[in-house]
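2.7 Reproducibility. Because tokenized structures are sensitive to small changes in the input, we list the exact sequence used for Bacillithiol system redox-active protein YtxJ, including any N-terminal residues retained from the expression construct. No trimming or masking was applied before prediction.
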Amino acid sequence: MLGKLDTVEQFDELLKTEGRFFLLKHSLTCPVSHAAYQEYQKYANEHQDVPTYFLAVQESRPLSNEIAEKFQIKHESPQAILFSNGEVRWNASHWKITNRSLVGAISENL
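Resulting structure tokens (single pass, no recycling of outputs):
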């Protein structure tokens, strides 16, 4: 199941409470982002052991910018990011966001 994040405060709380989770930066108007979102959703449905969250870039621009700045990751959309213990362990963008790449990210970052 996907959780939606809207604010910096929600994200900061997540960093404190979740050991490991995925976050997808998602554009509501981009076809590539829509395809990535479908792959991300497939992953979330099949692998409920790792929490999955998303933000809609158009609705949560301050949060999207905060993540890019705080973790020194160039903003892209769509963009999937794996966080573990408050740090970025993996990220991918555009067509590289697939169910398979998400599974691989977890296995490479146990």
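DSSP finds four helices and five strands in the chain.
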